[in-house]
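Support reply, case 0932

Customer input (verbatim):
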Amino acid sequence: MDNNLDLEWLLKIRTCIARCGEMDVGKWWNTDGQLGSYGSKMLSRGFPRTHHFAQARSVFAVAAHRCSQVFDPPHCATFWHLSDAIEDEFDARWEGWLDDAPVWAPFFDQIAAIDTADARIVLTRLELVTDEEVAEAATLRRSNEGKSVQLPSLFGRDRRSVALLGLAFSLSAIGDLSVPYARMGSE
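Our regenerated output:
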């Protein structure tokens, strides 16, 4: 794994951002409360044990697609596609998380309760980012056209870079998505 990125933490931070962007919260992508309590009730009928993960996987896909529609920079890492190696390992861990689905229920209950699109507030409340990461993210700015937020350094394939990509969603307004990204170094 690139720089030992904690994949469980990555799942949690992605789930938070996915919820922040839903139509009943941030209005960034076209899922409406799928990670909320209504989505949980609906999917638990067909996926009684693993419905939370079905909810998350679905919203991740919609969010990634919407972000690529708004801004899809070449040779860059985005929150929904960090690197091929990271994404392959993330996907490989999915089955293990499904095996432990009941352990994740309290976390998904917290996700269902999210009522703000401010990623900074949500990620801080759930203790998924540090004070230093929040302070660094406060220096980020939207592009002139408002469609993107570039990290000032190359993507480090590490927690700091991913935390900043997630926190940068705080610069999006309700119904006005700005896609965070970081340039990749030479491979």
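We compared this against your earlier run and they match. Two observations from our side: The first strand starts at residue 76 and ends at 78. Strands lie at 76-78, 148-150, 179-183. Please reopen the case if you see a mismatch on your end.
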